[in-house]
Each structure stands twice: as structure tokens, then as C-alpha cells.
Design brief:
By secondary structure, the protein is an alpha+beta fold. It has a single domain, classed as HIT family, subunit A (2-Layer Sandwich), CATH 3.30.428.10. Helix content is 28%, strand content 17%. The protein has three helices and five strands, in the order αβββαββα. Strands 1-2-3-5-4 form a five-stranded antiparallel beta sheet, with helices on one face. Strand 1 and strand 2 form a beta hairpin. The protein is globular and about 50 Å long. The relative contact order is 0.16.
């Protein structure tokens, strides 16, 4: 019994409501898994909740867990599909600074192959243990604060 509340102008809510087309590969009362219309690799899927949640913090934790379970099933399906798939990345962008473009939570399931051209470029750091411990304390404190 999942809510199907939508937000005006949300393309994923329009897909859930049947107002926009989608190539759906999995559907239940809580989530849909569909092909991304701008795939990074062939078979690039997204798992979306039926209920509108702009950010990860807005998502019911049970729905988030279900999204991850469905993403696991989709990763296995990609590996068995006959499509090129030597590995899988799961990616969730939460917020504009994290490259979220559609503000309805969605979990990307990306089939990967050597030489597919998709890379995450990062400048890795090696912080001190003291810095890591300080950051850990701040995160623990943040976990004890009420949600917005």
C-alpha cells in the first residue's frame, strides 16, 4: 500500500501516474525500475519510489531499503540478460551539489564494462586519523539531531 502522491512538474511522478512514457522493467506497489532515457551505458536503469520524495532525507527508510533490494535484483538481471555487463555500479545523487537533476529520489543501476568510458574523477586525499576522528564525531552528532 504505497502512496502515489506526486509533485507538480515532477517527471518521475508523471511516469508513475502514467502521464509520461517509460520503458519499465520492474514494477510493484512501492517502486518502478525503468531504463534511463540518457543512459551512460546500455541497460542503465533507475529505481524510483512511487511516492514523491525530493531528497534522500525525505524518503521513508523502508522504501529506501526496498529500492536497494530491487536494485540488487536488477543488477542480477542485467548480468543474466545477455547485455554486456562485467560489473555494476549503484549511484544515488542527493542534492544539486551531488549532481541530482530530477528532484525525486532515484537509484541508478549502471551495467559496467572495461573501457565503457564512464569514470568518476576525484582527487583522493589522505587525512590524518585526528581529522577522520573529528569528522566522525560531527557525523555522530548530526545523527542525534532531529530530521528537518
Amino acid at each position: 500500500m504505497a502512496a502515489t502522491a506526486d509533485a507538480a512538474g515532477c517527471v518521475f511522478c508523471d511516469i508513475v501516474a502514467g502521464r509520461e512514457p517509460a520503458s519499465v522493467v520492474y514494477s510493484d506497489e512501492t517502486v518502478l525500475a525503468l531504463l534511463d532515457i540518457r543512459p551512460l551505458t546500455t541497460g542503465h536503469l533507475m529505481v524510483i519510489p512511487r511516492a514523491h520524495a525530493p531528497y534522500l532525507a525525505d524518503l521513508d527508510p523502508a522504501v529506501g531499503g526496498h529500492m536497494f533490494r530491487v536494485a540488487q535484483q536488477m543488477a542480477a538481471a542485467l548480468r543474466r540478460s545477455g547485455l554486456p555487463c562485467q560489473g555494476v555500479n549503484l549511484f544515488l545523487a542527493d542534492g544539486e551539489a551531488a549532481f541530482q537533476e530530477v528532484f525525486h529520489v532515484h537509484l541508478h543501476v549502471l551495467p559496467r564494462n572495461r573501457g565503457d568510458g564512464f569514470r568518476i574523477h576525484a582527487k583522493w586525499r589522505s587525512p590524518s586519523r585526528a581529522e577522520l576522528d573529528s569528522v566522525a564525531e560531527k557525523v555522530r552528532a548530526g545523527g542525534n539531531r532531529p530530521r528537518h
